[in-house]
Amino acid sequence: MPYEDSLPVLIGCLAIAGLFFGLWRSFAQRGWLVSALLSVVIGVGVATLDQITVTDREEVELLLPRLARAVEEKDLATLIESIAPEVRPVQEQAERAVEKIQPSQVAITKLEVSVDRSGRLPVATADLLVRVSGRMVGQEEAMGIVAADVTLEKRERWLVTDCVVKPAEPLGKR
Asked: Which helix (H) or strand (E) holds 129?
């Protein structure tokens, strides 16, 4: 679907159905009742279709929290599997993050995804803020917030092709 949220369409169809139902009660003509029922069916159909259809943007929005959970659980196999095989520096970055930082909690606090379908393969860019609690090797537990720009490419599934992690900018600067 060209839109990401079916709620406005559903509300619009139900409002039109209410209008048609009111006209049916006033004029007692069967056509108004049929129109009301048809509006309800269209609204519910669009909402159902939206719920069962997962867009590329929604796939990426579901994938990134799974990867954050894999970092938290130190599941290196899941991380490496989600990174494009030819991008060895990103794989090494993931390995270092799990081994050196030893994260105990990884939470995505802000996530903005855009998908570009103009190329040969769809490419998604995710801008996120991540709160990480963990212990650097040989140090005490600490918490920090980092910004990450993640680029993913859809082959048979979404694969990370680039990940730039940097300190988060102060509020209002981003």
From this structure: strand 123-135
Euclidean distance between the first and the last CA atom of the chain, given in angstroms as a whole number: 31
pLDDT at 1 over 60: no
The predicted structure's pLDDT at residue 172: 54
Encoded tokens for 138: 């040989």
DSSP type of residue 48: H
For residue 48, give Cα distances in angstroms to 2, 41, 58, 65, 94.
Answer: 15, 10, 16, 25, 38
Please report the DSSP string for 136-174 in residue order: -TTS-EEEEEEEEEEEEEESSSEEEEEEEEEEPPPTT--
Task: Specify which residues 127 forms β-bridges with.
Answer: 112, 149
56-107: pLDDT as tens digits: 999 999 999 999 999 889 899 999 999 999 988 888 888 887 888 788 889 9
Q: Higher confidence at residue 172 or residue 13?
A: 13
List, edge to edge, every strand of the sheet that includes 123-135.
103-116, 123-135, 141-154, 158-167
Both tokens assigned to 39: 């509006």
Average of per-residue pLDDT across 142-158: 90
How far apart (Å, rounded) are the C-alpha atoms in residues 162 and 87? 8
